[in-house]
Amino acid sequence: MGWISLVLVLDSDGGLWLQRGLGALTWCLLVGVLVRESALVRTQTLVVIAFATAVEYACSPLLEVYTYRFDNVPAYVPPGHGLVYLAALAVGRSAWVRGHLRGCTAAVLVVGGAYALWGLTWAARPDVLGAFWFGCLVGFLLWGPSRPLYVGAFVVVTYLELMGTGLGTWTWQPYDPTGLVAMGNPPSGAAGGYGWFDLAALAAAPALLTRWRRLRQVLLEPRRR
Questions:
Q1: Of the candidates 181, 115, 108, which has an alpha carbon nearest to the alpha carbon of residue 144?
Q2: Residue 105 · residue 83 · CB < 8 Å
Q3: Pairing relation of β-strands 66-68 and 170-172?
């Protein structure tokens, strides 16, 4: 989280080559962190990166749902999504959160609900998308495969969205491409939107890891013979 925060601050007033350098360093940091994680977590992180990067290129340069300063996807964003996932995972699996999971879940629902209500009623820009995404977050918290992860995602994603838009690193448009759905800058329930990346990781990673191990076993079998 400290590194991502530093990257956003540096990029807010830097040039394109600085972005690229920050991207290279972010990849190095991500690899260094993943070395210490289990194979399952590494696979989950790769799924998040792949899914989130595809969404980034579709929503930013193509559809312009939100835009970055240079109208691109900064080089640090793909590995940054990996670090965001790991940060949310770290928060969720901390002893304190697991020991107070019911209270943490209630706090996320209350704070997130108040934020979404503010976006719908009192914000300078109406935020329908944020309220919808908060509904997604509620679903993830109540019925998702990992409640601690979604508690962590709310903390991490909400913080980064407020920081990134506050610094002007990226800006959300007032409406979606159809012109029908109003959006805040940032949408209040952004963590609920991000939760779909987490769901993809939790759902797909075990099967992908099993297939990889089987493929590796098949490839190594001739060498053993």
A1: 108
A2: no
A3: antiparallel
Question: pLDDT for 131-183, tens place per residue?
Answer: 999 999 999 999 999 999 999 999 999 999 999 999 999 999 999 999 999 99
Secondary structure of residue 188 in the 3-state scheme: coil
Global pTM value: 0.94
Token pair for 51? 């899914």
Mutual angle of helices 147-167 and 101-121, in 10-degree steps: 40
d(CA 215, CA 56): 31
Alpha helix (H) ranges present in 124-189?
Answer: 128-143, 147-167
The answer to whether 50 and 78 are in contact (CB under 8 A) is no
HEC readout, 166-218:
HHCCEEECCECCCCCCECCCCCCCHHHHHHHHHHHHHHHHHHHHHHHHHHHHH
Structure tokens at 127: 């935020």
Give average pLDDT by consecutive 10-residue segment, the chain, 225 residues. 95 95 98 96 97 97 96 97 98 97 98 98 96 98 95 98 97 96 97 95 94 84 63
Token pair in block for residue 179: 């012109």
| Secondary structure (3-state) at 182 | strand
The letter for the amino acid at 33 is V
**How many Cα atoms within 13 Å fall on the side-chain side of residue 58?**
7
57 token code pair: 């290129």
Provide CB contacts within 8 A for 145, sequence distance 6+.
199, 202, 203
